[in-house]
Amino acid sequence: MTISEICQKFDIDGVNERFQKSLEDKIEIGFLGEFSSGKSSLVNSLLGRDLLSINPLPTTKTVVEINFSNKDEFFKKDGDTISEISEDEFTNLQTKDGKFHLIANISAATERERERERESK
């Protein structure tokens, strides 16, 4: 039984609305630290995929925003301009000194699920 069904069954007002709102709330987490301290490795591990570049030299020089989405999409935000870019360009731009930031909207599918999907094609 879902929360919505329980609220309807027992005529509970407001709980379902608050629950639905909580699902829409965005949690923001920042990772800061010295270069090569493992920030990108930690994020990649949490995501279950290699999204951020890893190198013993300073690698990720750009602010990267990661959001969960239904499909993978990559963007470069430069001031007020947002441009869609390829995943390869997203990877290459991580090492550039720029006054822009990168946005990755990624699917929450696990690497194993993505592998199965590729094999089925």
UniProtKB/TrEMBL annotation:
GO terms under cellular component? membrane
A Pfam family that the UniProt record links to this protein: Dynamin_N
Q: Which Gene3D superfamilies match?
A: P-loop containing nucleotide triphosphate hydrolases
Q: Which SUPFAM superfamilies match?
A: P-loop containing nucleoside triphosphate hydrolases
Q: What are the alphabetically sorted keywords of the record?
A: GTP-binding, Hydrolase, Membrane, Nucleotide-binding
- InterPro entries annotated for this entry? Dynamin_N, Mitofusin_fam, P-loop_NTPase
Main localisation, per the record?
Answer: membrane
Cellular compartments annotated: Membrane
MF (Gene Ontology): GTP binding; GTPase activity
Q: Per its record, how is this protein called by name?
A: Dynamin N-terminal domain-containing protein
Per UniProt, residues of the Dynamin N-terminal domain are: 29-101
Lineage, top-rank taxon, reads Bacteria
